Amino acid sequence: MIFSESRVPRFRIMLQPKEKTMARSFRILSRDARSLTRTLAAVVMATGFAAGKADAAASGAFLPHQALYELNLLKSRGSNSINSARGRILYNFSGSACEGYTSEFRQVSEMDSGEGKVTLSDLRSTSWEDGEGKSYRFKIDSRMNDTDSSPVDGIAERAGNQITVKLKQPHAKTFTLDGSTVFPTEQIQRIIAAAKAGKSVLELTVYDGSDNGEKVFNTLSVIGQPIPGDRTIASPDPSTQNDVMKSMTRWPVTVSYYDHDAKPADGEQTPVYAMSFELFENGVSRALVLDYNDFVISGALGKFDVKDSRPCK
Fold first, then answer.
1. How far apart (Å, rounded) are the C-alpha atoms in residues 122 and 101?
2. Using CA atoms, how far apart are residues 242 and 37, in angstroms rounded to an integer?
């Protein structure tokens, strides 16, 4: 997964100031979790899969898998603090470098302000990305407090030094992005490449179809020292106990997301949100921490299953 102001549902009720902040934060939470899982489930090598699960992991290719993340409130701060937040992310990833990569995602979340105000969110998305990052299709549907919001449906295609985005929903629109912009798979691929090269900082502009399908983010990734697979883990989870994953190197990574169109105040810009996680060299992530300024959410990996993969022909 893998979060600026997300696509805003149209509310039919008036919200008090704190409720407005909760609604905005919850929209960011929904978009962030979707982007997080899709981003962290990206391709980390463009060489394709070797035959079999163990060979796929050893080759450095992205690992097809299903993951369940348990979301809980880690801390709340400031005048717009909340009492509780919880939820789940269920993520399925499959595909290969030759046939492209498909992800299916669902997040159900609940946020409580402590004033008898509970916000419920149900977010579903599917996406497909070409193995070389040339084409990216996405569809997103969400519901908040039983209120429907406009779905987002579109495709982005890279040609030469630009990317053309064609939206079907929430309304038909075509626009272009700079060719240096990357999709989620290439973002994580470059993070892994930078980590293996011993680099500690990486800046990228990322497009993932979030918000109303027009949002672009500037990102800053800070990469820590590699963690070998045989190092003792204080808080093991299904990923670290899986036979395919036990020998895999991983890195602590923090990615800060900035609104691409916002103008910095006094030469500085505050990130809309930041997410920290441990990223395995095959693209799987664990120990998620999502920081939305007013509150911080933890995402513990509750279940993890490796899926069968087919080699490229």
1. 24
2. 19
* CA distances (Å), origin 271, targets 168, 209, 230, 275, 291: 29, 19, 34, 10, 10
Helix and strand totals (H; E) in the chain: 4, 15
> What CA–CA distance (Å, rounded) separates 213 from 40?
20
What are 173's two structure tokens? 């629109």
Residue stretches of the chain with pLDDT short of 70: 1-60, 78-81, 264-267, 313
Cβ-contact 185, 43 below 8 angstroms: yes
- The pLDDT value recorded for residue 219 is 94
CA end-to-end span of the chain: 29
Furthest-apart CA pair in the chain: how many Å? 58
Report the pLDDT value the prediction gives residue 248, as an integer from 0 to 100.
87
CA 65/CA 291 separation, integer angstroms: 26
- DSSP assigned state of 9: P
Q: What is the model's pLDDT at position 269?
A: 81
| Cβ 34 vs Cβ 27: under 8 Å | no
**According to the model, what pLDDT value does residue 32 have?**
46
CA distance 254 to 160: 31
* Cβ(209)–Cβ(140) below 8 Å: yes
Amino acid at 72: N
The distance of Cα 121 from the centroid of its chain, to the nearest Å, equals 17
Q: In sequence order, what are the beta bridge partners of 84?
A: 112
pLDDT of amino acid 154? 95
